[in-house]
Specification:
The structure is a single chain. With 193 residues, the protein is of the alpha/beta class. It has a single domain, classed as Pyruvate kinase, C-terminal domain (Pyruvate Kinase, Chain: A, domain 1, 3-Layer(aba) Sandwich). It contains six helices and seven strands, in the order E-H-E-H-E-H-E-H-H-H-E-E-E. Strands 1-7-6-5-2-3-4 form a seven-stranded mixed beta sheet, with helices on both faces. Strand 3, helix 3 and strand 4 form a beta-alpha-beta unit. The longest helix is centred in the first third of the chain and has 15 residues. The chain starts with 5 loop residues before the first strand and ends with a strand.
Amino acid sequence: MNREITYFETPGAANTDETVKAAVGRAIELGIEHIVVASTTGSTGIKVAKATEGTGIKTIVVTLHYGAKEEGKWLFDEKNLEILQNMGATVFTQTHALSGVERSFSDRLGGASRAETIAAVLRSLFGIGFKVAVEITIMAADAGMIPVGDNVEIIAIGGTHSGADVACVIRPGHANNFFKMQIREIIAMPRLK
């Protein structure tokens, strides 16, 4: 099978529209029913929800957890939350699968956990957006937002700091079955990390 992959020269938000278009197009081709997208404020989530309107594809927006940048604060824009809910998208917040409480120990005591090591390897070899795509897939699976199984594929969209620059077809898995996950296709990613 030959498939086209979109490569961006540099990572970042400038690649969002092209990433979303490629991801939705591939979801339609494969009959994929769920797109999971990382979105800090909701802006990228809205772009995906608009692009999937009328397709039957469910948009699941994964946000940064409360306290990610400032204790007790959520970065998601409340107006965007309302827009997404009115569009039928699902928005949820959960502790990050590849850091979570482990980061507290690393920050305080030094060293790195196995989960943080996985995150570091994904960031280093494939880029931040790729790590995000893998992580939000685990989070969505663990929250029951997407189906999980050998014959299930979803598309995950992540980005480097803001927007979207990575899209992958993934066989999802839960955190406790991480090694059942499979990256089946790369749809878009930046060449530079």
